[in-house]
Amino acid sequence: MNPFPLAHAALIVVDVQPDFMPGGALACHEGDAIVPSLDALLRARRFCHVVATQDWHPRGHVSFVDAHPGHAPFAQISLYGQPQTLWPAHCVQDTPGAALHPGIDWSALDAVIRKGSDPGVDSYSGFRENHGPHGARPSTGLAGWLRERGVEEVFVCGLARDVCVLWTAQDAVELGFRASVLWDLSRPVTPAGDATTRAALQAHGIGIVGSTAFAG
Fold first, then answer.
1. Which of 32, 162, 164, 171 is catalytic?
2. Is the pTM of this model over 0.85?
3. Domain holding 48: CATH number?
4. Contact indicator for 160, 33 with CB cutoff of 8 Å
5. Which alpha helices (H) appear in 103-207, and where do they start and end?
6. Among residues 19, 55, 91, 115, which one is catalytic?
7. Is 71 part of a structural domain of the chain?
């Protein structure tokens, strides 16, 4: 019996945008390498539901190093009592670098979750923004959207593996979903942290699988 499309499962494609590719404002290590295989997976329609997240920052966003004179890119500061990395300006709203990657056929998408649009709050996870001035992590609405459609399990891929993919998978588990990361369809900011990322995923009970599991 053909198991596809997977019932009660969703694919979450995290931040596959030009600014996270080589030559972009905040390039991930080999970020463009996932594009052909991800395109093939989306065209194969293996999941009942497919959601993409999209970093969507206003100019002068609080996470941008330019908003903090005297600091270097990738410096760590405290923001609302939590550690905050200061990133190069990236994925600015309505710029080419913020678009969903044009080399992928996105017609399988059911929804796009834009995150990071609050100028004063960063947002890594597809499910919840980072801590803001009031302490709580506001919902993006993704969890409710998935539950309304009977989704019980999510498979997460995209960029960056050690930041937004990781946070999205961790939040999925904390919000009651089973979760796995498609390791070969994700890339980190830097591969030096891959062992730490694997350990963090395993500590949360998140599966680490390859996209070949969804071959026809």
1. 164
2. yes
3. 3.40.50.850
4. no
5. 142-148, 166-174, 194-203
6. 115
7. no
pLDDT (tens digit, 0 to 9) for every residue of the chain, 216 residues total?
568 888 899 999 999 999 999 999 999 999 999 999 999 999 999 999 999 999 999 999 999 999 999 999 999 999 999 999 999 999 999 999 999 999 999 999 999 999 999 999 999 999 999 999 888 899 999 999 999 999 999 999 999 999 999 999 999 999 999 999 999 999 999 999 999 999 999 999 999 999 999 876
Domain presence at residue 81: no
Whether 110 is catalytic: no
Q: Quick check: is 63 in a domain?
A: no
Domain containing residue 21: 6-58+94-214
115 is catalytic: yes
Quick check: 18 and 101 in contact, CB under 8 A?
yes
Within a domain: 84: no
Active site residue 48: no
Q: Which of 136, 135, 121 is nearest to 67 (CA)?
A: 121
Closest CA to 28 of 19, 36, 37: 19
**What is the rounded distance in angstroms from the CA atom of residue 9 to the CA atom of residue 182?**
14
Give the CA distances from residue 160 to residues 21, 71, 97, 149, 187, in Å, rounded to whole numbers and listed in that order.
Answer: 10, 23, 15, 27, 6
